[in-house]
Amino acid sequence: MNTARNAHDDSGTLLAVSSLTKRFGGLVALHDVSFSTITHRVTSIVGPNGAGKTTLFNLISGVIRPDEGKVVFNGADVSGWQPHQLAGAGLARTFQNVQLFPNLNALENVMVGRVCRTSSSVLDTLLMLPGERRERRARAERAEEMLELVGIADKRLSFPKELPYGDQKRLEIARALATEPKLLILDEPTQGMVAREANGIVKLMGDLTARNLTILLIEHNMNVVMSASDKVIVLNFGEKIAEGTPAQVRADPHVIEAYLGAEA
User: Low-confidence residues of the chain, pLDDT below 50?
Assistant: First the structure.
């Protein structure tokens, strides 16, 4: 394991979910799920298709509201908070399907992420007042730093459609980082990537936790999960069936059955 990560102070819990339940009509998509993240580490959520992973992420990030249970982030009960409120509190996420602004270049896409950390009003922007100009310069500088961090600074003037899919994923991560999150939620960050690109994302996650960022990850690539995670939560049919280190989870018979099916 990365020795830089071992040097962290991991006291306290940044995110804790308790008995989260979500129903869609008669379908129980998530039932009584509880877990917590490890501060400055990578916690992964895995499970077969339809296990409830995306529903869980949407509940945590404020896209949908829980029917039961609560989400506690940085000591506050944020159950039902709106996404923009959570962003202001320090929670940022990416999406399984890349969601970028097609008419903005890479630098401008990342600058959008800084909006929750600026104080200029719409009027300040329209009038181009000195304070707004200073903030715009600061947003651009911060965006440049984030593009450098994720490894695509040389493509800052490219539009999303001009970027390879892997770089689009990195750009979305850069935009999320521009919000200055305490918790970064990554939804399938290596989807559609070849092994070399996926390994680059694993390294990036290590770099981010070394910067005291906490990461919550959904990922189907089990090589990525096993190499990047400090803790793994396994869902199946909307319920948590296992929790532990990657080695513990990999050897759990309930997990083996969920992925491979019970023996005849």
Answer: 1-10, 121-123, 126, 262-264
